[in-house]
Amino acid sequence: MGQTQPERGEQMATKTKTKPVAENEYGRYFVPPGLEERPASKAVLAGKVYEADTIKFMRTHAGDGDIIHAGTFFGDFLPGLSSAMADTAMIWAFEPNPDSFAAAQKTIALNNLKNVEIRNAALSNVEGRLLFKCDHPNGKSMGGISHIVNEPGDGVREVAADLIDYAIPRDRQVSILQLDVEDHEKPALRGAYHLVQRCKPILILEYFDNERWLQRTFRGMGYQKRGKLHGNYVYATPDTETTI
């Protein structure tokens, strides 16, 4: 039995309700289907910039160096950062969730970003594989709130794990290390020990209010909390100027 006109119309409306490509002042974005209600998605779909103050700070303080950007989601930071980089500088992006990684690749392509290298990997203090909670029990992707877990289960996948010290070439100067890694900051920072010692980057760490741990881990460097942008705590060494 054929569909009635209203039924066909309802199906078409459902298919065209959400456009996956959004745009704001910095560029265009591929928003993963089903994640339109996440805060970053809602912002760019409305033509706004998500965490605008954080992006502005990173654009201002990148200088001539590279940026490490972990927890890329669909690439909501990438166009804004890419256009502010020095000619020879790079953005090293990391996203372990396979669905988010695929969306970020599309965002990179939409904007023809040549100074971004993205890896489908988590950051940790060991190389190998980690268990990563990617999906809700109903099968829906968790997107930007995906996180590392200790045991297998529904919605858990194995993902690659990288050390920053191994993943970033030693001849690169990094100005900013920004982590949005859902409570996995300590292992990620331990895996960046030699790069932090070498480059003294500004650290931008989501929900990580622990200056004492940073000072113990990176002894003699004097990392100090300089302020907070959205949920991101900003730390820098005494010889690094910052404006928040």
Topology:
Elements: H1 5-16, E1 21-23, E2 28-30, H2 39-45, H3 52-61, E3 66-70, H4 78-82, E4 91-94, H5 98-111, E5 116-119, E6 121-123, E7 128-133, E8 147-149, E9 156-162, H6 164-167, E10 174-179, H7 185-190, H8 193-199, E11 202-206, H9 211-217, E12 224-229, E13 232-236
Parallel strand pairs: 3-4, 3-10, 4-5, 6-9, 10-11
Antiparallel strand pairs: 1-2, 7-8, 7-9, 11-13, 12-13
What labels would you give this structure?
seven-stranded mixed sheet; 30% helix; 9 helices; 244 residues; single chain; globular; 13 strands; alpha/beta; four-stranded mixed sheet
Report on this model:
- With 244 residues, the protein is α/β, with parallel strands linked by helices.
- The chain has nine helices and 13 strands.
- The strands form three sheets. The chain has a seven-stranded mixed sheet with strand order 5-4-3-10-11-13-12. A four-stranded mixed sheet has the order 6-9-7-8. A two-stranded antiparallel ribbon has the order 1-2.
- Strand 12 and strand 13 form a beta hairpin.
- The termini are far apart.
- About 6% of the residues have low confidence.
Task: Write a compact overview of the structure shown.
By secondary structure, the protein is of the alpha/beta class. It is built from nine helices and 13 strands.
